[in-house]
């Protein structure tokens, strides 16, 4: 291939087409547990977190719900992935060998939110959410009228049929500020690769230990590779609400760019054309009420 501006633009257009097609068809999992929030600045503050108001009988004046009880911010970060193409390969029309590389760029960019969101799971027992407690905690403060109580979305037992049932009860017992049940019904069981077998048995088997399995079909199983280093931890989610227990904050979506000018240092000194993708985003914690987590440290 003759290297000139026109041919280099055609090459970039070809790479960009491959990138966009691969990006669109790559499957992602984070929307199951995270709400995507567009961002327009360096960080965003979520003052409305902590509010799950419900309809009430209209007696007297309207009651304005307090959506500013907490301040929780997520700061955007910069991310990039860059590769180089040797000028000789372009001159020798060996562009086809770089197609998998561009496809890998696209897959990595598309799955990056998965990495950010699911990477928070094992940290959720320590890192704090909007109420000053870890996302998974035994001491979430809740004001019900004039009473201040503590509610828990944390367990310590290994995943078994019994602990799964107990977690469902615990999650469905969580109350809102009006003292009423939030009517949360868990429907997603998230486990490490090591716990996949027991998880699928709990929600898919007709019988367990010669007894009818009453939990069959109560949840979908999602196996998360990010939990490989905390194999005993497991989580139960309510995913049917618009609000989710995690937030993916998107400031600038991934975009393929090129540094392929003849006067660019990488071309002049290294005879290498550079293609990369960059984005600005981050992930954080949403509503703790929508997730139950267990460390799995206690063996029944």
What report would you give on this structure?
It is a single chain. The protein has one domain: phage-related protein like fold, CATH 3.90.1690. The model has no long low-confidence stretch (mean pLDDT 90). The protein has helices spanning 5-25, 87-91, 99-118, 161-172, 196-204, 265-270; strands at residues 34-38, 43-45, 73-75, 77-86, 140-144, 147-151, 154-157, 188-191, 207-208, 211-212, 220-223, 234-237, 246-259, 272-285, 291-298. The chain is elongated, with a radius of gyration of 24 Å. By secondary structure, the chain is of the alpha+beta class. The protein is built from 6 helices and 15 strands. A 5-stranded mixed beta sheet has the order 7-15-12-8-11, covered by helices on one side. A 4-stranded mixed beta sheet has the order 1-13-14-4. The protein has a two-stranded antiparallel sheet with strand order 2-3. Helix 1 (5-25) crosses helix 3. The longest helix has 21 residues, at 5-25.
CATH topology: phage-related protein like fold
Oligomer description = single chain
Task: Just name the CATH architecture.
Answer: Alpha-Beta Complex
Low-confidence stretches: none
Structural class of the helix and strand makeup? alpha+beta
* Strands, total number: 15
Mass-distribution shape: elongated
- Residue-averaged pLDDT, rounded? 90
Radius of gyration: 24 Å
